[in-house]
């Protein structure tokens, strides 16, 4: 089979790999959809690398179980099951792993599919059976791929923040994670102020139900948010852009006792601890989601009949990966997905 490899220097290549065979405790999926994540761009834009053993990219897998290894048990590891993948694998025995957070494991090095082990930008993918998350037939494979990281990251942040329908939430960045957050927050009854510098993404946020849409380049963001909240500021802010200025604005636009959650990767942030203390702010980082939260997010999408497929503005074939990432690198529009 052929799989996508990030070579750095804004280059991707399709290379040949053996079809995977499951070992003990493993299954093989026939990939139906593999999402494109903003974190891919850090590797895509990085320095050129000539791997001795290249790794297939793609950490938002969704597909159907087609082969099962020895010793595999569980309700989802059956031939023909529609599944997502929680894209981390660790020892499976420590407190963190058993609580659904293998990415927090300190017992063994954590494997990240699409980075440390072959990912989903290929027709088939081998994963540990205990990483499988069921995919309801009412959710498309593309939407399942989004939940496997980007949309699930927004959900995981809201779990940490304790978002309610009483909150006014400022969301900095309306890329795939930010748009997911807008959709999920509105479905939970929150008032949403969506911010992005890209016109198409602001339009998408409005169509997803954002109560107010702001361009940070038009005026002072902090003043604008305070005007929209009677001078008080938002009760919560979520930063998804990975930009230092967005994170700083997020921390400065919330009211006293407010909550700020930071999920955007890539920014180094400086702030006044004295100011944060005096406003009694709660500042949280959030890294993707637990395996239980991934399922909870999918259940919520079904229960509320959310149109998660509206996230996708670009659908690509595997042999279009070079064009797909060239366009994705522009960071305009919605989410991209590779469909098999």
Gyration radius, to the nearest Å?
20 Å
For the report, how would you describe the main beta sheet? 7 strands, mixed
First CA to last CA: what distance?
12 Å
Specify the oligomeric state.
Answer: single chain
* Helix content estimate: 25-40%
Instruction: Provide the CATH top-level class of the largest domain.
Output: Alpha Beta
Domain Enoyl reductase (ER): 8-338
Protein name: Zinc-containing alcohol dehydrogenase superfamily protein
Cofactor: Zn(2+)
InterPro entries: ADH-like_C, ADH-like_N, ADH_Zn_CS, ER, GroES-like_sf, NAD(P)-bd_dom_sf, Zn_alcohol_dh
Structure report:
Pfam families: ADH_N, ADH_zinc_N. InterPro entries: ADH-like_C (IPR013149), ADH-like_N (IPR013154), ADH_Zn_CS (IPR002328), ER (IPR020843), GroES-like_sf (IPR011032), NAD(P)-bd_dom_sf (IPR036291), Zn_alcohol_dh (IPR050129). This is Zinc-containing alcohol dehydrogenase superfamily protein. Residues 8-338 form the Enoyl reductase (ER) domain. The protein is an alpha/beta fold and 340 residues long. The chain folds into two domains: 2-149 and 289-339, Alpha-Beta Complex (Quinone Oxidoreductase, Chain A, domain 1); 154-285, NAD(P)-binding Rossmann-like Domain (Rossmann fold). The chain contains eleven helices and 17 strands. The strands form four sheets. Strands 3, 4, 5, 8, 9, 16 and 17 form a seven-stranded mixed beta sheet that branches. Strand 10, helix 5 (176-187) and strand 11 (191-195) form a beta-alpha-beta unit. Helix 4 (150-161) packs across helix 10 (291-303).
């Amino acid at each position: 089979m052929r799989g996508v490899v990030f070579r750095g220097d804004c280059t991707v290549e399709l290379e040949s790999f053996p079809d995977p065979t499951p070992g003990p405790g493993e299954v093989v999926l026939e990939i139906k959809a593999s999402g494109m994540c903003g974190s891919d761009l850090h590797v895509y834009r990085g320095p050129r690398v000539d791997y001795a053993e290249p790794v297939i990219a793609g950490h938002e897998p969704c597909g159907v179980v087609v082969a099962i290894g020895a010793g595999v048990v569980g309700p989802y590891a059956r031939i023909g099951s529609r599944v997502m993948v929680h894209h981390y694998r660790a020892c499976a025995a420590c407190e963190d792993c058993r609580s659904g957070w293998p990415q927090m494991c300190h017992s063994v090095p954590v494997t990240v599919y699409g980075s440390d082990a072959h990912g989903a930008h290929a027709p088939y993918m081998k994963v540990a059976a205990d990483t499988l998350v069921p995919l309801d037939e009412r959710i498309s494979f593309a939407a399942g791929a989004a939940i496997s990281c980007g949309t699930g990251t927004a959900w995981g942040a809201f779990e940490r923040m304790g978002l309610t329908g009483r909150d006014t939430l400022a969301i900095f960045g309306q890329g795939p994670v930010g748009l997911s957050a807008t959709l999920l927050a509105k479905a939970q009854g929150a008032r949403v102020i969506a911010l992005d510098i890209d016109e198409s993404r602001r339009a998408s946020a409005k169509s997803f139900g954002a109560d107010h849409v702001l361009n940070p380049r038009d005026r002072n963001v902090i003043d604008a948010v305070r005007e929209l909240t009677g001078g008080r500021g938002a009760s919560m802010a979520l930063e998804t852009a990975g930009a230092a200025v967005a994170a700083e604005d997020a921390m400065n636009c919330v009211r006293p006792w407010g909550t700020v959650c930071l999920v955007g990767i890539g920014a180094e942030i400086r702030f006044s601890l004295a100011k944060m203390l005096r406003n009694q702010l709660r500042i949280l980082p959030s890294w993707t989601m637990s395996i239980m939260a991934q399922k909870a997010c999918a259940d919520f999408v079904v229960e509320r009949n959310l149109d998660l497929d509206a996230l996708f503005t670009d659908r690509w074939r595997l042999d279009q990966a070079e064009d797909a990432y060239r366009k994705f690198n522009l960071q305009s529009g919605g989410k991209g997905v590779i469909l098999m």
